[in-house]
Amino acid sequence: MFGDQANKLVLDAHRTSNLPEITLYQSDLVDDIVKETNDLGRDVDYITEQQRTNPEGTSAEQIVALECQLFVARLSMRRNKRCLLAHQKLRADKMNEFAWLNIDPSDSNSTPQPSLTKTGALGSNYTTRMILDNLSNQEQEYFKQYSQLLVDMKSKYVDIDLSGDLEPPTSIFIDVRVLKDGGEVQTEYGVFNLIKDSQFYVRKSDVERLIQQGYLEEL
Amino acid sequence: MEVDDILRNFDTEVGQRSQKPKVDLYTSLSRVMLNERMAPEILPYQKDLLDEVLSRITNQQQLLLDSHEYGDVNIDSGIITSDYKLQLMIMETDIERLSYLVRLYLRVRLSKLETFTIHYIRLTGERDDTKATLLSDEEQEYLTKYMGLLQSLYNNSILKKIPRELTYLDEVESDISMVTTPDVDEMVFIKVLRDETITIPLEDEDELQLEKDAVFVVKYGLISGYLNIGDVILI
User: Fold this and answer.
1) Bridge partners, residue A21, by sequence
2) A 16-45 residues inside an 8 A Cβ radius of B
3) ipTM of model over 0.85
4) Where would one find the signal peptide in this protein (chain B) (predicted)?
5) A62-92 confidence digits (pLDDT tens)
6) What domains can you pick out in chain B, each with its CATH number?
C-alpha cells in the first residue's frame, strides 16, 4: 500500500532517535520511497490529463472515482515527502549533536570507538558515536560544512570555549584517570604521559578535550 | 613599573568585585541565562550585557596570565606568599563560572535557532527592527548559513528527486504547517520582581494577580511582555 515504505523509514528514524549513534543510511528504502512518490506523481498527471481531454465521456460515478484516486495519490505523495524530510532532519540533528563533541568520526565498522563515559548533561540518547560510512554522501558533505560552521562560530568566542562542558564548573583542578594510551601531553604545568590506568591531578581546562575524546575519565 | 600597575589594577578589581556593580553583573547574567533557558522562544539578544561580560572576561584572563608570569618570575625572591597563588585560583574559578554562564546562554540560543530555523528566518527577514535586537550579528549569520546547509542537504538527498510541486518546505497541509514554531502556551515558572502588583486578564473574565516575590506557573504567552521589560523572571 502507498506509504508503507515511508512508514518503515519513520520507524527506523524513531529507533535511531533513541540510539547514541547514527545508523546506516537506508538508501534503498529512500530510493523506493522516491520512486513511489514519482510514480504517484505520474498517476496524478495522467488522471488530470484524462479529465481534461475527456470531460464528457465519463459517468458521474467514474468522475467521483477519479477524484478519489487523485486525492489519495496527492495525499500519499505529500506524506512520503514529509516522512523523507523528517528522517533526514533527524539524522541532521544527530550529526549536529555529534559535531559539538569535537570527536573525530570513525571511518568504518572495523575500528570500534571506545564507549564514552557519559556526562550527566547529555542524555543517554545523545549521539556520541558516528561512523562516516553510515552516512550518505550528501550527509557527509553536510557534516563537513556544519563542522566548519561551528569552527567559525567558536572562533568568535575564543574566551568562552563554546563547545566546552555544559556542567557547571566546580573546581579548576580535577583528578583524572587515563583510559587508553596516547603519548605525551603538554600543559602549562609541565608534561605528563598518557599511560592507561594512571592517575593525574590536572587543570580541568587543559584536559577537557581529552575527556571528550575518551582518553581520560574524571574521577 | 608595568607589573606593579597591573597588580594595583588587580587589587582594585578584587575590591570592586565585592561591591555592588560586579554583583549586579553576575546576577543579571544568571537571570538572562535562566530566562533564555526556560523560555520556549528566543529572547532579544542582551548585547550590552554580553559585550560587557565578554570584555571583562578577556581582561581578567589577560590579567591572570600576567599575574602568573609575575608570580613565576618572583617566586624565589620571597615577595610571593602562598596567598598570592590562592588569589589567582579564586580569580580563575570566577572566570570559569562566568564563561560557563555565557556558554550556556549562547548554546541555548543556538539550539533554539536550529530547532525553529525556518520560523526565525521568516521572523528576522520581514521586520527590520526585530532583526536588529533579536539576534546578534554572529547568530544572524549562523542562522542564515545553517538554513543554507539544511536546504542543500534536503535538496540533494530528497527534493530534487521528487516531483517539482512537492519541493516547498513551508506548506500548510490539513492545518498543520511544516514550519515548527515555539510553543508559547508552554507552562513556565516565574518570579515577580516588580513592586506593584501586575494584573493579567484571563479568559472567562478571570484575573491573575502577580504580586512581588511570588512564584507562579503560567503560560509563557501571558507573561512574555513582562519578561522582556524585566518585571518578571523565569526560574
Assistant:
1) A129
2) 30, 34, 37-38, 41
3) no
4) none
5) 888 888 888 888 888 888 888 888 899 899 9
6) 2-114 (1.20.58.1030), 116-181 (no CATH), 183-235 (3.40.5.60)
